[in-house]
Design a protein that fits this description.
This protein is α/β, with parallel strands linked by helices. A 5-stranded parallel β-sheet has the order 4-3-2-1-5. A 5-stranded parallel β-sheet has the order 7-6-8-11-12, with helices on both faces. Helix 2 runs parallel beside helix 15 and helix 6 runs antiparallel to helix 7. Helix content is about 50%, strand content about 10%. It is globular, with a radius of gyration of 27 Å. It has 3 domains: about 220 residues; about 130 residues, no CATH class; about 130 residues, 3-Layer(aba) Sandwich (Rossmann fold).
């Protein structure tokens, strides 16, 4: 088996294996119309390609997609330090980070204008990950430097190119306007700050999207340089983007490669934790250096890394001889590469065959075996990576036990918190409740008819109603993290509209499909 190519790095070059997770950014997700499925697929591909993934802590506050992913499928990555969120070295914790951001740009960044929401999200992050990745950085200042440098670049897609197209000349009024916006920096230099300046200056509305896209790219570049990382996002909206040496870290190219091999569906069906297990299999260990070598070959050929892969797979499955394979691959290369003679393509085909050793220990077949046979029999489950639920209950012990079993054995989550089962350790009841409640990711409230009013109306215990109110305030009324399970004709609090109520009168299992739908789990 061959070794992957090694590259000498100077002190200011990115550390191999560390990437900056661009797609976690809310504005970038909006710009590229990223779906939850696409975001999770990109992150899973990046897990395979990276040793460490870094992202700005701001992403968690700005994007619901990122929040759901970090607190759900990717929580194991965060807890184990494979996905780390970075803040300035002068900040104490995530809550401090959020409050400082709110102070900087209270008008331009409305997503930082809700202190209660910020505090709740920050507590979740502070529980989930420690230590944070700290670096003394001024990302906004770095973006402005890149912004000003981009104004003197007149190529299409750059700020200078956009300004030149609008004015018809270089260094016209539009370029002057864009330079003035940078000079007027106030708070964070992000799109909600830039947009009002452009709109108030008569900037063409149909060109706003191009400036926003470019600003997002500059933000990613500045952030990646600040933490010595590769940028994960090459150009996923372009099918013909040029392959470079850094493409070995591009998750979209890997997804494209898996599609060419017919393995993409198998890969997408894996959980994030299973992808982490895949990194340890023989299949990925064998395939990774082949993939890196293919990228290097594509760079020298100015071609597509996926060209030869289906043919490699066909060669293995169809029993082609070495001569038949090299002849077939030469024809493929000749069709794809302009200006290459058939003889030159045949020579490249011979070199490629020596590189891949497809007729020996085929790395593609090994990867396929790992995806379809090794992973299903690996235990791979990490208890700490599954959500933690808090069960609020009354006197119905059978219903409480039924729910606990459902959460552990059906959902596959870690053992939920039942306060009565936790030792007090000298704490008061409210101290014991607060300490355990703040560790939870979801709250299941069991409303059972335990008490009767003077009018013989059934209602839940008052401690249940109190704890329901606590979790609604803690998680947010529309967070989807508070599920109220109602049994029988029990009176519901009238001031909690928006909280999800599920009827479990027929048992937890009977309501299981609705519970899973509200939790957004399969």
């Amino acid at each position: 088996m061959f070794e992957p190519p090694r590259f000498g790095l100077s002190s200011n070059e990115p550390v191999p294996g560390r990437v900056f997770w661009t797609l976690g950014d809310g504005p970038t997700q909006e710009d590229l119309r990223v779906s939850r499925r696409w975001l999770e697929a990109e992150l899973k591909a990046q897990v395979l390609l990276s040793d460490e993934i870094l992202a700005s802590a701001s992403y968690f506050y700005e994007s619901r997609l990122t929040q759901d992913l970090v607190m759900g499928p990717a929580r194991g990555l965060v807890r184990d330090g494979e996905l780390r969120l970075f803040v300035g070295s002068d900040l104490q914790n995530f809550e401090h980070h959020a409050s400082e951001k709110a102070k900087k740009s209270p008008l331009e960044m409305l997503e930082y204008g809700q202190p209660a929401m910020l505090a709740r999200l920050s507590r979740q992050l502070d529980r989930l990950t420690e230590p944070m990745f700290r670096r003394a950085v001024d990302i906004s200042g770095a973006i402005i430097e890149l912004w000003l440098a981009d104004l003197v670049d007149n190529r299409p897609g750059t700020l200078g190119g956009i300004a030149c197209e609008i004015d018809g000349v270089a260094e016209g009024t539009t370029a002057t306007l864009l330079a003035q916006i940078a000079a007027e920096r106030k708070g964070d230099f992000v799109w909600p700050f830039v947009l009002p300046r452009l709109q108030g200056s008569g900037f063409p509305r149909h060109r706003l999207g191009e400036v926003k896209h470019r600003l997002n790219q500059l933000y990613a570049r500045a952030s990646a340089e600040a933490v010595d990382a590769f940028i994960d996002l090459a150009d996923p909206v372009s099918s013909d983007s040029k392959v470079t040496h850094a493409s070995a870290q591009d998750p979209f190219l890997l997804l494209k490669t898996l599609r060419a091999l017919g393995l993409l569906t198998d890969f997408l069906n894996l959980s994030v934790d299973q992808v982490r297990d895949l990194k340890r299999t023989q299949g990925w260990t064998a395939f990774r250096p082949l993939y890196v070598a293919l990228v290097e070959a594509a760079v020298s050929l100015s071609g597509d890394v996926t060209i030869a892969l289906p043919l490699l797979q066909h060669a293995h499955n169809s029993g082609l001889t070495r001569d038949e394979f090299t002849t077939a691959l030469a024809r493929v290369l000749h069709d794809e590469l302009d200006g290459w003679t058939l003889e030159r393509c045949a020579t490249m085909s011979e070199k490629f065959l020596t590189l891949t050793d497809v007729f020996g220990d085929n790395p593609i077949a090994l990867l396929e075996h790992s995806l379809r046979e090794d992973l299903p029999i690996m235990t791979g489950r990490r208890v700490a990576s599954t959500p933690l639920a808090f069960i609020v209950h009354g006197h119905d012990a059978a219903l409480r036990l039924d729910l606990k079993n459902y959460i552990q054995n059906t959902l596959g989550w870690q053992e939920p918190v039942v306060l009565a089962e936790k030792r007090s350790g000298g704490r008061t009841i409210i101290e014991k409740f607060e300490e355990n409640a703040e560790k939870a990711d979801y709250a299941f409230i069991l409303l059972s008819p335990d008490d009767l009013t003077k009018d013989s109306e059934a209602r839940a215990r008052q401690n249940v109603i109190f704890e329901l109110g606590f979790f609604v305030g803690y998680f947010g009324r529309k967070s989807g993290q508070v599920l109220v399970l109602r049994k029988g004709d029990v009176r519901l609090p009238g001031d909690l509209d928006g909280v999800i109520y599920i009827d479990v009168s027929a048992g937890i299992a009977a309501a299981g499909e609705e519970i899973r739908r509200e939790l957004n789990v399969s």
